[in-house]
Amino acid sequence: MPQNDADAPDDPVLAGLNPQQRAAASHGDGPLLIVAGAGTGKTTTLAARVAHLIREGADPSGILLLTFTRRAATEMLDRVARRLRGALGEAGERAARQVWGGTFHGVAARILRVYHAALGLPRDFSILDRGDTEDLLDLCRGRLELPSGGARFPKKAVCAAIVSRAANSGETVAEVLETRYPHLLQHEPTLRRLFDLYDEAKGEQNLLDFDDLLLFWEALAADPEAGPALRSRFPRVLVDEYQDTNVLQARLLKNLAPDGRGLTAVGDDAQAIYSFRAATVRNILDFAEHYPAATVLPLETNYRSTAAILTVANAVIAAAAERHEKTLTATRQIGPPPLVVRCKDEAEQARFVTDRLLELRDSGLELDKQAVLFRASHHSLALELELQKRDVPFKKFGGLRFLETAHVKDLLAFLRLAENPRDEISTLRCLLLLPGVGRSRAAKAVALLRESNGDFGSWKELAAPGGGVAEWKAFLDLMPLLAANREDLSSQIRRVRRLYRPLMEATYDNAAERNRDLEQIELLAGRGRDRASFLADLTLDPPSSAAASAGPREDEETVTLSTMHSAKGLEFEAVFVLNACQGGIPSEQAEDDAALEEERRLFYVALTRARTHLTICHPLTRHLKRHGLRDGYGFSELTPFLTPEALAGCETLAASGEAADEAPPAPAATVSAADVRAAIRARRG
């Protein structure tokens, strides 16, 4: 293969690259970190680097290309093939097909099939998916003698999340419980026994779960005999989205390339937003410490956003406590300044965003090219209802539509049952949530309620289910109170949440987030809402709600609603960011410096999805959750991530359209001075 044409101006392998991209693609064999800012062409650069390595003589079958999705690997290798076709013809395309490309887990499975004997694994091992993992844990859970009384033992999905977190983060089970599941700490010894049984069952049944694929690959790479053979088999390793790697993946890569020779990592510390999946930003920030001979090259030319948008985004990330230095520059100089729009509350925010979406559509910007981004799935509730009311089709990413989620449907089932005891669907849904209640017992309870003409007292004839006596009694106490309908609707919802929360915590890995969704239902109920009309409003079709719930037609324009996490890697002509305030972004759950820094990066990711139009919405009042005081509405401050330097690049308006130089006075508080004093006394003890 030719060795001396890499710098030729018409070189097809490096064609179209800017100077920074070309330097990264043509780098030598030493460890390389490419810090690729948003919209700077990292896929193009990484594909060019693979093509350059092959053209310079590297054996393509000895190149390992690791990505986080199969689609990314396929796209990358297609680009490699196109570049090599221009340089080497059909031989170049054939070479591209020999590269080992895929996800970490997909490549691990291939490698373990090849090297199974070195680890004493049968070649025909089976791989458990997430559902299989949960089911096997559930079988093992049945072999434990679980103590009666006390907090309920976590269900299979939570157990699976705990054992997976420990594997990927390098933490012990106790450390995982302490940081993420403190309410389950008392079960730590039993959980460790469960996970031991789970490992034994996998060994007996010739099974590996997803985490085992990486753990066994890591063990193979670290083995003093097998490790060198594996390293010589793959002398060049390239990793995409390096900021999303976890401790286990970093250990694996260190064993594959101990001194970093042949290792290329591509990523952006400013877009490290997946710590909840055990990813750690330290991997990319500390790359040069892990590999002292490393070269760090930035990509700073942004081909996506206008200069006005990048001015604000650069100012936001410049305030980060620690980062790889880079400043994005725009190739698109013309565009309007980002807008910061002050809205009275979330309802006005929803109306403003809907109005603006339609205005942009009427001016020629299709709905498909517009997106609304938010920190948490429940933040879009008011907007979803407004869009349905206004007949604006949308698709949502990052969770189900709010009213279709299981936990929201569970809560509403209690209210529907109280409103209509003949509603057997809601009756069954509520009963089957209770521990110890199976289909047979639930059917008897439904029949009793029907025969007693909706008298919840009739259920006292049924014996309390084993393993769920306290929950059964609480349910029997709750339903007559709800049926009487003497309390306001918010109070009724609060009672349901009190019963439902421990059931939810034992069932779902993300119970805290789901609980915040239920708080939004309480907020939606408002003050003085009638229960029957409230349920009817959520059930009856507003214009096009039936179509919306079924999903938009394939030929229909739809605006995208997405959590910020789910929007990573996407771009839109117009982006609206909701709830840019304290408690919105940053989340109220971000309680330490590391969490706040990740929230800053998440906000930066949201801003850099926009190509031309960026609108940041700040509701001045939001529903607040006060610890020790009553819930209520309160003034919400603008997100601290919009620093004075960032705001200098924005235009600030009120939702009504006037310039908003001053914030309106804070609304009247729903908490009294007496409440505050009482809370202060209580905190003193």
UniProtKB/TrEMBL annotation:
Keywords on record: ATP-binding, Helicase, Hydrolase, Isomerase, Nucleotide-binding
Signal peptide from the UniProt entry: none
Keyword Hydrolase on entry: yes
Keyword Hydrolase among record annotations: yes
Gene3D superfamilies per record: 1.10.10.160, P-loop containing nucleotide triphosphate hydrolases, PCRA, domain 4
Occurrences of domain UvrD-like helicase ATP-binding (ranges): 15-306
Primary enzyme class: isomerase
Stored InterPro entries: DExx_box_DNA_helicase_dom_sf, DNA_helicase_UvrD-like_C, DNA_helicase_UvrD/REP, P-loop_NTPase, UvrD-like_ATP-bd
GO biological process per UniProt: recombinational repair
Reactions listed under catalytic activity: ATP + H2O = ADP + phosphate + H(+); Couples ATP hydrolysis with the unwinding of duplex DNA by translocating in the 3'-5' direction
Pfam families: UvrD-helicase, UvrD_C
Domain UvrD-like helicase C-terminal: 307-569
Annotated positions binding ATP: 36-43
Region (Disordered): 1-25
Record-listed E.C. numbers: 5.6.2.4
Species assigned in the record: Alienimonas californiensis
Protein name (Swiss-Prot/TrEMBL): DNA 3'-5' helicase
Superkingdom in the source lineage: Bacteria
One of the record's GO molecular function terms: ATP hydrolysis activity
Cellular component per GO, a single term: cytosol
Similarity section: Belongs to the helicase family. UvrD subfamily.
